[in-house]
Predict the structure.
Amino acid sequence: MTRHVRDTQGVVVGGGPSGLAVAYALQGDTLLLEKEATVGGLCRSIRHDGGVFDIGGHSFHTPHPEVHALVEDLLEGGLYEQTRDARVYSHETLIPYPFQKNFDRLPDPDVVRACQEGLREVAGGSEREPENFEEFIVQKFGRGIAEHFMLPYNRKLWARDIKKISCEWTSERVAGPKGEKEAFDTKGGTRKPLQSDTMVGYPREGGYEEIYRSFVRHLPAVELEAEVAAIDPVSRTAVTRDGREYGWEFLVSTMPLPVLVRVIEGTPDRIVELAEGLEYMSLRVELLLAGRRLDTPIQRIYSADPDIPPHKTAMNHNSSESLRNRPRHAIMAEVSHSAQKPVEVDAIAPRTIEWLCDLGILESPDDIIWTGHVDAKYAYPVYTHERPGQVAEIKAWLAERDMYTAGRFGEWEYINSDKCVHKGLALGRELRERYPDRMESAGVGGSGA
């Protein structure tokens, strides 16, 4: 049974980083609806028996000074910042991240030689632009680095044939090879790939979600456990699964586009087909709780080895001093999967624990006193060659009806939470000017935020 709760000028659907930032910038007569019992989206944290887990390995780093300043201002205690300690597991050896800059640390001289020779062969660049991600890797790094790490790692990560992936996103994500000087930019506004010496942040207390929980007290109105099940663009209403109805003048959704178009009444078949044609990768995050403090400084390990389930393993206890000092430590193992690459979920925890014992991070399997998991159906949007046209047509149809999208899966962009905040603030300010009637120019959402 539907009951009308209230009319509001702007409804924001989704309390992840993007939705929170949009609502923060809008202020005024704005209501945020979040389906879970807490905000944060994929940046939520899980607590179990003294351990603090995130849904995958998270750390805060941004090229947007305004976002960094805002987080420091809102987050009680501010950020704990430290140098990133990431490793690559390759040829049964841990070397510093990224592989393409540190392959000469490998013990096998034949592998090192192959990587060096491949780099020399591509040193002059190519006259032809790469047509797909696989071609990009070979042209950028040479056959040695490609075959010994970059190709198997990215096939494992993306859980599909990477020839189907475009190259438009690589400048922000893929670090250059050995000899190419790079630094993570903290002021220029354009994301650069993470390096071995990048400074990263994390809340001084609690999990990563504390960054985004800190937004809530500055928002006009938030309703939790309010999953939107139907949107009527004619009557301008949104109805939650438990029957609460809200009127709106405009709506911002951070829901995955295939989900959004299905809950909108009267969506044309063409728009539904476009949204359902968008590709994504799913994630199984295995949670491992160690019953003691683990003696390792490592924060992340990346592995291309097909016999090791996770492509990334995060020692979350090393994210901050407060987590490091806890008597029990939390580890997250990220395993990507898709229709093209299913995963045997029952094998993830035991094989990962065995591998961590081999590395000396665990002394024995008995160190792990609890295992759990989180499944994220929509984890990474895939940059297929068709994606830009698909997304543009969907967003144009929505905008004609005063509906807008934000976030990783609202815009189908591979962006981190800081970029979600940056873009969310910009969208909120834009909409506040476009729909000025009841949008108060509150200080916390002002253009200087």
Summary: Residues 99-192 form one domain. The first helix runs from residue 17 to 26.
